[in-house]
Amino acid sequence: MKKMQLTTWLQNKMVLAALLMLLVAGTAVAGVVALREGELQEQEETEPGYAFQTQEDPQPLDQQWNQLEHIQKEPLQGQDPEWEQSEKPEKEIPKTGDRPVQSGEIDTVSGGQENVQDDLAEVFEDEAEAETLVAGEDAVIYEPESQVEDVIAPAMPLDFQADSTMGWPVFGNVLLDYSMDTTIYFPTLKQYKCNPGILIQAEIGQPVTAAVRGQVTAIGTNEEWGNFIMMDLGGDYTLCYGQLENIPVSVGQIVEAGEILGTVAQPTKYYVVEGSNIYVEMRYRQEPVDPLDYIR
Asked: How far is CA 13 from CA 1, 10, 16, 24, 287, in A?
């Protein structure tokens, strides 16, 4: 009986001893782990080759550049003194975020502040110029000269021919016909004479339009026609419009058919009895021709 009790007692002692050894071993492992973590944390805090930046605590840009310049001026421990004379890696901007920027990455950026700022300034300048161009309804869009030259079509030449036609400058009755072979009677002048043009009845102030495309060669005034416009039609043809006012065109201007040349004025003293009208005279190689042969 005593032998069995002794055996049981020894077994209990062995179990307790084993448990005590396990407890001591666990405590030792926990201490080693804590010590290792403390060493790692201390190393990270004192390691000169690490720079941390998180989104929760962003670092100002000027402090980043100061930090980079400081790191460049004070090389890391163990750095080769001949490194600065060797070929340096291409400069690149370090990425921000939760990942620490390694010392090698910092070295590639050191000294590049001026170039990066110049690039940013150019980008901001281009954006400001683009906003200025597109802002407002009166914006001006600029195109290269080569593209503008390709878009602009050359002006069509003036080429009035014998089979060409023209329209009516105003719609009205013909008060006096063209007549260069025989004389006709002029009521106001109370005499017969040749007429190198035609008189078309029109109301004072009525718009007068170009009968055909042409270029203005002269604008003047005389006693018979009042204010008049001379136009070159091309092909040795010219056309004159008289008895006008409020003339909006100028010498040298190309006028398309249907454009307004002015309005009907008061008749001159040569045509008081005939009433308000416009005078139309057409010439081919300086010789009068009948305008009604071309009006359709």
From this structure: 19, 5, 5, 16, 146
